[in-house]
Every structure is written in C-alpha cells, then in structure tokens.
Amino acid sequence: MPRNEPPTTEPATESTDDHEEQTAAVLELDGVTKEFGPEAAVEDLSLSVDEGELLTFLGPSGCGKTTTLRLIAGLTEPTSGTITIAGETVAGDGHFVAPEDRDVGLVFQNFALFPHLDVAENIAFGIDSWAKADREDRVDELLELVGLEDHREKMPSQLSGGQQQRVALARSLAPQPDVLLLDEPFSNLDIRLRVEMREEVRRILKEAGVTAISVTHDQEEALSISDRVAIINDGHLEQVGKPETVFENPESKFVASFLGRASFLTGRVRGDIVETTLDTLSTDQINGPLSAYDGARIDVLVRPDDLEATPIDESMADGHIVHRQYNGPNFVYRVELNDGGVVRCLHNHVKTFEHGQPVAVDIVADHPLAWYPVD
Ligand code: ATP
After folding, report:
1. Ligand 1 within 6 A of 66 CB?
2. For ligand 1, atom 12, which residue shows the shortest CA distance?
3. Which label site among 47, 59, 220, 249 has the fewest CB atoms less than 10 Å from its CB?
4. Domain range summary for the chain, segments of one domain joined by +
C-alpha cells in the first residue's frame, strides 16, 4: 500500500507462528543476516510479529538492535534472508522496497518534530495527500487518542517532553502504517516521566491497534510495555517470549544475567536434590527434570527476592554484607559468600544491616529456580 493515502482493508495473511492464538503475522524476518565487512551485526535472525502486537528488542549496546530496526525500515539492506511486511517481501529474494515505499512508521529518539509546524500540522504531515475532510478527521481522532485536544495550535517549543512524544507518536500513526518502529522511545525523557510515558505509549499503541517494534537496552522498560520481548546477544536472537516467560524461564545464562539482578549459586546434582553452597534444594524448588545431570555441577539462578540474609555469629555465617543499596522502600544487600561468590538479597527498608555484618543466607524463593549446566 503506498504511503500518504487513506488505508483500505488488506486481507490478513496466515501465520505459521504458534506462539499465540492470534493468526495474522504482519512482519516476518526469515534468516536475516547483516554483515558490515567481516563482522555480522545481525546473524540468521528469524522472527514473526502478529498484528497489533508490541514486540521489544532488548539487548546490550552493540548487539544489533538498531541494525534490525533499520533493516525493517529499509534503511539498510540485508546481506541475506528475507523480510516480509503485510504479506509483501520488502527485502530478499531479489526484492528491495525503498523505505518511503514501505508502510512503516518511525518514531525517533529525539521525536524529530518540525519546529515551524504546530501540533496539528505536525500530525498531518504524513497525510498531506489525503482529502482535506479525511485529513482533519484523522488529526482530530489522533489528538484525542494522545490527549492533546487542547494543544493543537501550539508549537513544539511550547510542549513538554511527554507532549512532544505524544505528537511524534500521533504523526507516525497518522498514515496507519502496517508496522510502527520505536527507537529507544523513552531515552529522551527524564526518569520520572519515562515511567509515566511507558504506560501511556502502550495505551496509545494498543488503542491504535498498530503492530509495533520497539528497541531498548532497558530491561524494566521492555518487560513493562511489551507483549513479547526478543533478547538479542551479539547479533543472535537468544530468546523471544512473553515478559513473564523470559523473566521466569530464561533459556540461557545470558538471558538470565540480562534480566533482573541475577546471581548464580554453584550446585551439585545428587539424585533428585541439588546441594548448593547455601541450601539443599529439592525437585520442586528447581525447574525441569534433573535426571540427565546426576552428579553434574550446575549454576542455579537466584535473584535478590529469592534470598534472605539474617545476621548471625561469625562462626555460622554464609558470608558478609559488602554493600548496601538503599532504594527507599527496600534495601538490596550484596553479600560475599565464604566461597567467594556474590549474591544480592532484597529486604524491606526497616531491615538495616551494617557493612561487614556476618549473615546466614537462605533461599526463600516460592517458585522453581532456573539452572544451567556448568560446561
Ligand atoms: P546501541 O544500544 O548502542 O545502539 P545496538 O544494539 O543498536 O547498540 P547496532 O547499532 O545495531 O547495535 O550495532 C551492531 C554492531 O554493528 C556494532 O558492532 C556496530 O559497531 C556495528 N555497526 C552498526 N552499523 C554499522 C555500520 N554502518 N558500519 C559498520 N559497522 C556497523
């Protein structure tokens, strides 16, 4: 569908995805690789995104998130693999559709509003070829969606950061793109506004019903706004799933380390129990069957809320408090264990332990813990 024209209803394509009950995949990446010289920024990436879904690429700096976004937008051409948007192959198999001919919207980090256009004119920018009445209706609809009905004649310089972001979103949504791409959408906002705008941006995207891909290195942001999170490591897709799935069942140690403040306890499998440096864990405290690992060493994932520190006499201690982080409602204590390992324990703000305090550390998790074989 060409840009700048009122949309028509397109037939939904059948999806082969089995991750959700939804069936229409709007975006599909199949074996996409992008090399810069000898280095692959993105390698053999396959993924499909359903209609109306909000998927976030999450990963450390340099892992290939922005390159993936640019490949979808058409700003970069893949070295191999195919990209399909709404059933049309836009890259690969001898095709390459230019960015302006893809039905893709982009929301930039810095919002990139036109300073000489007012709010309504900014929003109308991408639909200037629509009939005047359609265009005005669409602008009114979007002003209401983003809650800026009373600001339509303001200039961007008269808006707060959050309001500018609403205008940028409305402008990108105006032509009803098949896919909306958001590049680090909250990085330009101060921390308090960031949390507020996360909820607001999710509401707007969901009300608009648009298929959206966002990119971030902020795990909390990814977990809180997304329907699914795709974790990228060094150009590879490590895991994709619902936020609670990737958080609770990280498939690799990389994903585990990247989500939440992970620590690992060394353990030894003995039949159907695991002896760790702290407690002995029974089968129901551990994820999945252990039978193939009898006698093996494993690393058990523990996050701060899985552990509890209790002051104790030096002779009975598992370790010592080496750092205290005060967060207002709670403390996170870093404990150096006697074997040299380091774990973190989350405690209510009234539990004040001093630096150097000997402590016993107990596993208090009320869910099965993930674990990884030690190579
Ligand atoms: P960040 O969070 O820091 O933005 P990112 O995950 O978005 O990082 P990319 O910008 O996609 O990472 O970069 C992935 C890799 O590809 C990096 O090693 C980067 O140096 C390299 N790269 C990206 N663009 C180019 C380019 N045009 N030429 C050469 N190398 C590039």
Report:
1. yes
2. 62
3. 220
4. 19-255, 261-373
